[in-house]
Specification:
- The protein has four helices and no strands.
- With 147 residues, the protein is an all-alpha fold.
- Helix 1 runs antiparallel to helix 2 and helix 3 runs antiparallel to helix 4.
């Protein structure tokens, strides 16, 4: 399997993604709490807060799995994240095809572009699981990379 992280190990790449996800998760939860405080009991704000909490839990799961080199925790994160990404892609494709204005289409297409980053994150975590299972010799590294 090809190492998706240029010149660093998939473990370090996964750790970096876990930290970024954790920061994003905490800020999203605070934003969700602000929405609930500002708009009251609207169901949309509670759904957004629930999604934010789920993202935070997934980030913690990824961080713990990375620190403990736990293929089981990483595999659980991978399965849940794949389901979330597939649902997100389906909703975004539906929104792009039904968006009324050009500006809305551009915004929605840019969020589809962000999905590529999520797919790359899945590839990095998959490579780390592969590295846990088979060791560094199971991956193809960049020339001159220290393993």
């Amino acid at each position: 399997m090809l190492n998706p992280c240029c010149c660093i190990s998939p473990r370090i790449g996964t750790f970096i993604f876990a930290i970024v996800d954790l920061i994003f998760g905490v800020s999203t939860v605070f934003y969700g709490l602000k929405l609930v405080a500002d708009s009251g009991q609207r169901i949309e704000t509670w759904v957004e807060l629930g999604l934010a909490i789920m993202l935070l839990i997934l980030a913690i799961l990824l961080l713990i799995g990375t620190i403990k080199n736990s293929a089981e925790k990483l595999r659980l994160w991978l399965i849940i994240w794949l389901v979330v990404i597939l649902a997100f892609i389906a909703f975004q494709v539906f929104n792009v095809t039904s968006a009324p204005t050009g500006g809305e289409r551009i915004r929605l297409m840019s969020s589809l572009g962000g999905t590529l980053l999520f797919l790359y994150q899945i590839w990095v975590v998959w490579a780390f699981i592969h590295e846990i299972r088979y060791g560094p010799q199971g991956l193809t590294y960049c020339p001159g990379q220290v393993v």
